[in-house]
Amino acid sequence: MINFKEEIAKQISKATNISEQELETYVEIPKDKNNGDYAFPCFRLAKELKKAPPVIANEIREKLILDENIIDKVEVVGGYLNFYINKKLLAKEVIKAVNEEFGKSDIGKGKNIVIDYSAPNIAKPFHIGHLRSTVIGAALYNIYKILGYNVIGINHLGDYGTQFGKLIEGYKLWGNEYDIDKDPIGELAKIYIRINELCKQDESVLEQCRYNFKLLEEKDEYCTKIWEKFKDLSLQEFKKVYDLLESKFDSWNGEAFYSDKMPEVIEMLQKTGELKESQGAEVINLEDSGIDTPCIIKKSNGSTTYATRDLAAILYRARTYDFDKALYVVSYEQTLHFKQVFEVAKLLGIDKKYTDGLEHVAFGMVLLPSGRMSTRAGNMIKLEDLLNEAIQRAKEIIEQKNPELEDKDDVAKKVGIGAVIFNDLANSRIKDEIFDWDTALNFQGETGPYIQYTYVRTKSVLQKAGYLPKVEDINVDYLVDEYSQNILKLIYNFEETLVQVTNKEEPSILSRYLIDLSKAFSAFYNENKIILEDKEIQDARVYLCSVVGQVLKTGTELLGMGMPNKM
Predict the structure, then answer these.
(1) What is the structure's pLDDT at 415?
(2) Which fold has domain 112-367?
(3) Which of 135, 177, 188, 234 could be disulfide-bonded to 122 (CB atoms 3.0-4.6 Å)?
(4) Chosen CATH of 4-85 out of 3.40.50.2000, 3.30.1360.70, 3.90.780.10, 3.30.450.20
(5) Strands 150-154, 80-85: parallel, antiparallel or unpaired by DSSP?
(6) Residues paired with residue 116 on neighbouring β-strands, in sequence order
(7) Which helix (H) or strand (E) holds 282?
(8) What's residue 66's pLDDT?
(9) pTM value?
(10) pLDDT, tens digit, for every residue of 166-208?
């Protein structure tokens, strides 16, 4: 498609002798469509040209030599130049460009992106708190991929640490009281809650738990055997959730994978002279970097920490994947941890491009109306239960609305799980989300099911028409009305929307876009009769419906949602 921003920058460059590349970054899309399709703010040029922005805007306007086949008109409003694109050209460019490959680009060609996401803890319930990391990470994975990046998705399982020392102790004490093979996660969670209570009451039990983890690090046969059993049973349970979400990963290397890679990291840090003894532990002070809390590399009992393992992972990923960016999709509770780890990583002697590419993609917590969830407190909503409940509720609604529908189970799965995923991705990731069943599964308003229903409507139009016109037969004169143009402008900006997602690591930008496109289609559908006697008008409108359907399908699939053909 023609790059309209580039064309506008080219014209302004001729009038100002400022480089096209610089000017293109200034061109923006106005929030109010009455201010044109694109706006150029002259405020940034005021200092350079030593003139008031409105004066600059008028002077540039007088010098512009417009190609009316591209730009219909330019208006000066205050310090802005507002550009109106030729409506027929826009229609022609968009309908010609949209196909099943639409959205794909090579922007990221030759660049490697590592995304660390989901990462549930072994032997703990896979609860709704893990949903956010899983769906945000998956959406970023898909969007980077369609833009041409080489993406590596890593499920950095929480399969190491003191909690396993606790579980091992609990299993030793009460293992024969629980049927772990029948309900692995549920029974292990009960043991975990029970051993935590005992640790609070008896400090010697807590010390034994810590010692158990040290034995595990030292490959003690008994501890390793129990740990492997916990891990295998947990993964079987986790995969049920991943199958429902259709989540896939390129690597399942969890914390334990780095156990034999930590000595090298510790040795590297020792050589820098920055690793200091503090109350029996080994730490790195980061006060010079503005971080008051030291990063603990080794505990006083000799066992390692999350930080040690994350540093080993950074070193391994730099060597193995040669990443340009390494994203960590982890809750904002871990902000200090990642600040520490990213700062200490600079001491590992790896190329600056790797440490510059480290990024914590923080997100808000999932809270219940009653407050925080906690495995120790036992007030969790299991993710598998949530997803199955969503499917069941979706099926009940479908039974009421369309009892004759075929493939109800498949449609209910797409609608139910789509509702949960979209609910999670609809708002800025950094906000805390209070999880409420009624909100998550509301099939009205700005929801996943609303987008799916809009898509089904586009399919219904094509079915009623009985054919899809050829793109070369479309007369774009019938796509210059306000409602058609609103759709076409949105679709034109699809790739730019995906780029914005990766610039901010913010999938809600795409979620908002899909809602806007669905609303624009609903307005078009309500205002324009589509199936009519005039075949030229019908062809144009039917084809526009197919274009909307394709973009909605591509966009929702990038978010991780499935699209039903009927509802």
Answers:
(1) 94
(2) Rossmann fold (3.40.50)
(3) 234
(4) 3.30.1360.70
(5) unpaired
(6) 154, 328
(7) strand 281-284
(8) 84
(9) 0.92
(10) 999 999 999 999 998 888 888 998 999 999 999 999 999 999 9
